Model the fold of this input.
Amino acid sequence: MKTFLESLKFPVQEVNKKSSGEKGPGRPPYWEMVFYWTRKPLVGARSVIAGALLPENVDENLFKAAVRLSSPTPHRENPQIPAEFAKYFEGKKLLDPFAGFGSIPLEGLRLGLDVTAVELLPTTYIFLKAVLEYPKKFGKSLVKDVERWGEWITEQLKNDPEIRELYDDDVAVYIGTWEIRCPHCGRWTPAIGNFWLARVKDGKGYKRLAYMKPERKGDEIEIRVIDLNEILDDISKANVDGNEIIFEGENYVKTVEEAVRDGKLKQSDVKIDGNTVIFEVPSANIESRRDQLTCLMCGNVIKYADENGNHHMKLKNGDFYVKFALRKYHEGDERFARQRLLVKVKVKDGDLIFEPATKEDSEKLWKAKEKVREMLEKGDLDVPSEAIPLYENRRITPILSAEKWYQFFNPRQLLTLIKIVRLIREVGRKVEEEKIAEGWNKERAFEYAEAVATYLSTAMLKYAYYNSIVTRWDSTWWKIGETMSTRGIAMNWNWTESPWFSSFGGMIKTLLAILRGVKYLTSALSSSQRTLADFTENSVKVLQGDATSLNLGEKFDVIVTDPPYADDVPYTELSDFYYVWLKRALSDVENGKLIPRFHKEAFFKRIGPKWVEIKTQWQEFAKKEVSTNPGRFMEDENKKEKAVQHFENLFSQAFVAMREHLKDDGVLVTYYAHTDPGSWINLIEAGWRRARLQITRAIPLTTESETSIVSRGKMSLDTSIVAVWRKQKEEKTVQISTLKEEIERKAKSSAREFIEYGYEGLDLLYGVMAAALEEVTKYREISSLKGPLTTEEILNEYVYPATIRGIVNAIAEIEGTGTLHSGTAMFYTAYKILFGNASLSANDIVLLRLATSTDPSELISSGVLKEKRSSSSKEYTLYTPDLLGKKALDTKEFQKFLHEKKLDPVEPKPKNSVDVLQLLEYYSLLGRSRVKEEIEKLRKMWAGEVEEALFIARLVSEYYAEIYIRKIDPVRRMKEEFASEIDRELEKDGFLEVVLMRRLLGYVGGAV
Done:
């Protein structure tokens, strides 16, 4: 029997709408406990799990009520499972072998299932314990004790004379950078990547503008703060153009002139031209991509260094001089580089005050350095001296020249973190002693102490995340750009530092985030929240293990997981930023060594009778992680090929292991945040070929926020494809000549069914693709006359074309007679139907290219496709009148558009049916008689193209009319009666070309 998840009734669109709400204020509070790279929306996970357990014939409205889809924010409420559903959940077991930050297992627990969550890395395993195990085991008492002991830690920091003397009490954030000794003039120059301090807008205009200005004073660079809010009463009318801040008006001129007279500004700070006032924010003096630093003292450009530190303007294989200087600094040679503070940020009455940092401020920083130097000389084990993976220069900045983890922190940050580590150790002992004194047995007291210490350690990690020399000051949001706010650890020249008491990134702030998370989790998992009828206590097991070689000794009713993909974030290497601190805070010290305390299996491995410390995750686990990372195979000549093969093998092994743990009638559900064909080949190869599983359904679910650092191109910005798999019932082989007809038939019939049910866009595309794959994955092997076909051949040559043609032909069947002969017409129609006006990444467009046998470069040259380049990526969009916006309905503007495409509407020479279509759309703006006249002219030379163009218009118009009538008149769906309203809605949504197609068809007959 099929499950509800496999049925057409599964409410994909409603789940997606609620999932997209889980960002900003709607985010689950526990997500804020610590940064993690990917977290699946809880309502999506809940709906998928429940859908995978319930039969396909359950009432759709009952399902929605059960998972709380009617709630404004479903994740804030536990599921409400009715008594008649209880048999589908009671005693059922869920496995997630790639559990990540725990969205899937958490929702499994909330549904009353017995849950097993597995993670390879110690860091993630510990996070999972904090998310799943401790809240369920200890409940709300955790909140009180985490709060109490968190306050104890902050009180100890407050009274610590070594910490107290390092910070001013009224500073919220310090902004600092590196200084480099100029090889030209011998003086120190700061490397400043951004001089902006505040560039904040609201709906009324700019509300805060401030920046730094460097000035020479003797042999030093001093920083002045230009705060325009202090100089001008109203900055809302400012026009910021690049680095220029422009004000227009006589009042601004008078105010600025007065500020110059009063000494608030210097004459050189501002330029006045008539009634125009211009402030110029200095440009960055360091450009890493060009290997260039400009000395702010002498103005000379600094380029390269040889191994002895001699400067060269050109040097083959030489290091960027700044990189050389930083390497020397980390080696203990401070002749070439040093740290300095630029600005202090204070908070007053809800506003930020920017003040230049003084020499005394920098001296406090250097004072902490002396204490750190003493620790290093003594070999203090609380200094994280573990090696960073130098091969991981894609994601961990090589410019910093750091080789050990402590080198990512300035001395004050490092000293404070070490103090917190030692205080957490002390808390662990105190909590355990306290609970034993209260009568708890030793085992439970130890586990409780472990839980409290783990949450406090997580707060420490969040503090470290806000406090490293690879953070940055975000002038547009007035916040700290955190350590890993990109897909790695990137170099930032204006780093930030928050004192432990700061509201910006201090321990007090991070402890509050932990408390909110623990409150949420204990509430979600407390017994008082249990909503299932007559359920006994369900269980959770959090295991540190390898998903590729699991041997759990049990089988599961449902496996739901988000497996890695080839070019995933290098979790092993990056999360060592956390690991080295967790290990210290949660272990003990004896005879100058770390020894096991809490989570000993995460930080130590048993070798004979001894527990041996695991120095770093990358040294222990890198080659066990399922991903393509050539750096992990530096010793191999063909490291790229080796890395690809490594990923494919481990990915397949993981699917085989999941099959072995799945009950015969069980369901496997995989999220996959990749939509490019290469990734689908990996997925199908692993699941079908290697694990002998059959796909029965695929749906696109919203899984990543649009600003997520792990999100993909436009088509897949916030989308994962959720695939449903079952064990193959029998091993059969088939010839592709036989199967091809079945694939095409299934694609067309399922497309027709999906369209009738209201599916559109990605829902339609992947629903039909899954139907085609269901036919393919029934068989063990598929052959042609030449022999067995590869997965790539099957997908590229049969599944993708059948999917696209199935959708188009299903619409054509509804519309009536006609056909699309050319690949260009098929491409244009499919793009228009599936993606509308969206831009597609180079990866995402491959599927359409393969399905229609077209080439993007040829489509660009023929005016069908337009390439859009940005600094970091390449995207494509259809070259359509929609690019004009509402101007598409203006005759003159449309004529300009045609000329831009080298189409002359007076003497047309169209290259293809898309050109003909757009010519006809232009003529439709000129009236019925002109359309008919021009069609007859075009038919004399391009009869086939004219018929194909009109058929494109019919297909696209029919498709969009069907979508919009469902919204306007869902019961009767009388398209003719609501034609004007459909046009208005299309125009409002930016589908101007569809409006023109409908007008064209109205003139020639065949209006939709």
Observations:
- Confidence is low (pLDDT under 50) at residues 532-536, 705-717.
- Residues 928-968 form the longest helix (41 residues).
- The longest strand covers residues 205-217.
- Residues 698 and 770 are 5 Å apart (CA to CA).
